[in-house]
Design a protein that fits this description.
The protein has 13 helices and no strands. The chain has 405 residues and is mainly alpha-helical.
Length: 405
């Protein structure tokens, strides 16, 4: 059963804006804590140890994502998101108290980071399952764009906020502010109570529910294709955006400052795509827009390997941010539209697993690939991944004519 149409208003309605605000606060808190965590870990250990601990802290999130999808389908996405925020608030309060009572150690901070990533793994699929319950189908694309604006704004603001709080009161101040943000986020999500949300209160094992979600994706050819395309698109962009921009900036002598500018250009392009989608959704042109967007991504990725000046690379990363963000909004909306509400949490958790897993693989191989094949060939291989994504998508007659109106 789905929510009656009268209960679903547009993306600018108070319940949906409250949900977007909650997302922004959660992402701001996460970004602020990561900055404080990294700075403190480097201070109490070393840069190598800090990097390793932060990487290891992210592993539990990947493991917990499928369980998060099961919880969203069983208890309802609003309840799971509120629980996750309240639990993260409690963790931050405890962390602030521990840091004030004892000298922060690398082990303590790593444990806190790992717990936060596990709780975040419950929030993410529940969020993806909730958006279609709050919005009518014709506003889903605009709602996803607004959600991503809130998410990226929170991430962008988290760094400066975390740095300011760290300077004022240390890690304890960041943890306390983060706790307050999660508490406000929980209250905002609690306002978003869609009618008709399906919940299950049986005692079926988690692994059985996870298997049901996997079987649903595997048994729907169009949905299976969409998840594969998401993985290919993410794999194509992850390495060039996360590590590649640092290596590209170094190759032209732009250094760390140049890498920061490239990341800013990418973020500006992505934000522009979200704003354009909010104003003018793709609607009935969803299939062709996605194909053109991923084709453009392939062209830009190939060009990045041969561009030799900072202005040219800035333009390339700006366009890359725009087309990847546009493709991401369309793909997410298609997956949500294709999935029935009773299994949507689990399907969104599978999609999140692909989205989070692709950067791990992309980041791991791009450096070695550049050492072995050189920068132009490596970027061409990433472009090839985007070309394969287009071919896979276009192989489905159902998806070629997909609409989101």
């Amino acid at each position: 059963m789905t929510a009656p149409a009268r209960t679903r208003r547009g993306p600018l309605s108070a319940p949906y804006l409250a949900f977007v605000s909650a997302t922004g606060l959660s992402s701001l808190g996460d970004a602020a804590w990561v900055l404080a965590l990294t700075t403190t870990l480097v201070g109490v250990s070393s840069a190598t140890t800090a990097g390793l601990l932060i990487a290891l802290a992210g592993v539990p999130r990947v493991v917990a994502l499928l369980g998060g999808g099961v919880a969203a389908d069983r208890y309802g996405p609003v309840r799971v998101m509120v629980w996750a925020d309240l639990a993260r608030c409690a963790v931050m309060v405890a962390a602030a108290g521990l840091v004030l009572a004892v000298e922060p150690t690398a082990a303590l901070l790593a444990v806190v980071a790992a717990v936060l990533t596990v709780l975040g793994a419950f929030f993410v699929p529940a969020s993806g399952a909730l958006r279609p319950l709050l919005l009518p189908e014709e506003h889903l694309v605009r709602g996803n764009a607004l959600y991503l604006i809130g998410l990226r704004t929170g991430q962008a603001a988290g760094g400066p906020v975390g740095a300011a709080l760290l300077g004022l009161g240390g890690v304890a101040a960041v943890a306390a502010a983060n706790a307050a943000g999660f508490l406000v986020s929980a209250a905002a999500v609690a306002r978003s109570r869609p009618d008709g949300a399906v919940t299950r209160h049986d005692r079926v094992a988690v692994r059985t529910r996870v298997a049901e979600g996997l079987r649903h994706v595997a048994g729907d050819p169009a949905l299976r294709t969409l998840v594969l395309v998401v993985g290919l698109v993410e794999l194509a962009a992850a390495g060039p955006v996360n590590i590649g921009l640092v290596l590209l900036a170094h190759s032209i002598g732009a250094g760390v400052a140049g890498a920061g500018l490239l990341l800013t250009a990418f973020t500006v392009g992505a934000t522009l795509a979200f704003l354009l989608t909010l104003v003018r959704p793709v609607g009935r042109r969803a299939g062709p827009v996605l194909v053109l967007g991923v084709c453009a991504q392939a062209v830009v990725l190939g060009a990045l390997g041969v561009l030799g000046t900072l202005p040219a690379l800035l333009g390339g990363y700006g366009v890359l941010g725009l087309v990847t963000a546009l493709s991401g909004v369309v793909l997410t909306s298609l997956v949500q539209r294709r999935t029935p509400a009773p299994v949507r949490g689990r399907v969104m958790s599978i999609m999140a697993l692909v989205v989070f897993g692709a950067p791990l693989l992309g980041n791991a191989v791009i450096g070695a690939s550049i050492d072995l094949f050189g920068l132009p060939t490596t970027m061409a291989l990433h472009a090839l991944s985007a070309v394969v994504a287009v071919c896979v998508y276009a192989s489905s007659p159902v998806l070629r004519g997909a609409r989101l109106d």
